[in-house]
Design a protein that fits this description.
By secondary structure, the protein is α/β, with parallel strands linked by helices. It has two domains: 223 residues, 3-Layer(aba) Sandwich (Rossmann fold), CATH 3.40.50.300; 68 residues, 2-Layer Sandwich (Alpha-Beta Plaits), CATH 3.30.70. The protein has twelve helices and 14 strands. The strands form three sheets. Strands 6-7-8-3-9-10 form a six-stranded mixed beta sheet, sandwiched between helices. The protein has a four-stranded antiparallel beta sheet with strand order 2-1-4-5, with helices on one face. Strands 12-13-11-14 form a four-stranded antiparallel beta sheet. A hairpin with a 2-residue loop joins strand 12 and strand 13. Helix 10 crosses helix 12. The radius of gyration is 23 Å and the shape is globular. The mean pLDDT is 90.
Length: 300
């Protein structure tokens, strides 16, 4: 990999491995993230997501491989890089003996950040002065999460790493969060986004990596992944056709005169074949990200 291409990436992970004794964390994973990209990172519990995030934050050291962020090796420029990073961990908790104001002030001091965005963020997420004067031990799950989001974006980071960021937020606050993400992307912020909420990932991310048992099994656009899985076609015929077969489509189910097929070939050719059938109705849908995800994790 030449140095110029590395410098043009917000994140580059190359052949990264981490073991906890004999237990696998991640094994020889590689991916990169473009500046200003909202990059999804998917996998079930135990797949290696948290290990990868901790490696990106330099909270863990890799056994093998390298991480480059903003064109600089993480192992050499850790402190400099982390000053420009925001982080929201999964199941975020603040120091319970502090008020909301004290907690945000502490992080502003640690980061030596200007607070000109603070009032805007607090207003967006409806954290009032009354809320912020209370100790965080009195916060609801939703209030705690909103505080976590504010601290992650407080210092205008170039890179934000988010782990289950909308956990505990009500639907209205989720929409506020989505708007913030797109706003920050327009400003050039890079977002590394890990979530179990697949519709959320589909809404926000154009590209993602899927990790399984410590290994990356796919890094590509959501659109490309959907094309690989194919369309689903449901047809209703004017009467049953025993042993119905359609070239370019695999039969998934048949109930009476209703048939469901998966299309992986050329859609236009399949439609030509279907047009010769006694059709009453036809529905063709694209797979959701959830369907794509299950294709990677289903057992044979």
């Amino acid at each position: 990999m030449n140095s110029s291409s590395t410098k043009n990436k917000a994140i580059r992970v190359e052949n990264l491995s981490k073991f906890y004794g004999k237990t696998l964390g991640v094994n020889n994973i590689s991916f990169d993230v473009d500046p200003g990209e909202i990059f999804g990172f998917l996998g079930p519990n135990g797949a290696g997501k948290t290990t990868t995030i901790r490696l990106l934050l330099d909270l863990l050291k890799p056994d093998e491989g390298s991480i480059t962020i903003f064109g600089k090796p993480l192992n050499e420029f850790s402190m400099e890089i982390r000053r420009h990073c925001g982080y929201l961990p999964g199941e975020f908790q603040a120091y319970k003996h502090l008020t909301g104001y004290q907690y945000l002030g502490l992080f502003a001091d640690l980061r030596k950040s200007l607070n000109d965005d603070l009032s805007i963020l607090l207003e967006k997420f409806q954290l009032s002065p009354r809320d912020l004067k209370r100790k965080t031990s009195q916060y609801s799950r939703g209030m705690m999460q909103k505080l976590g989001i504010v601290q992650a974006f407080l210092h205008k980071p170039k890179l934000v790493i988010l782990d289950e960021p909308t956990s505990g937020l009500d639907p209205l606050m989720q929409e506020v969060f989505y708007a913030l993400i797109f706003e920050k992307q327009m400003e050039g912020t890079t977002i590394f986004f890990s979530s179990h909420n697949l519709p959320e990932v589909e809404k926000l991310c154009s590209r993602l990596a899927i990790i399984r048992q410590g290994q990356i099994v796919s890094v590509e656009s959501i659109e490309s992944l959907k094309q690989k899985v194919g369309h689903v076609m449901e047809i209703l015929l004017d009467g049953e056709l025993p042993a119905l077969e359609i070239e370019g489509a695999d039969l998934i189910s048949a109930m009476g005169n209703r048939y469901v097929f998966k299309i992986k070939g050329d859609l236009s050719k399949v439609l030509q074949k279907v047009s010769g059938l006694p059709l009453k109705d036809i529905t063709i849908t694209r797979p959701t990200l959830e369907k794509v995800f299950m294709e990677f994790y289903k057992t044979s």
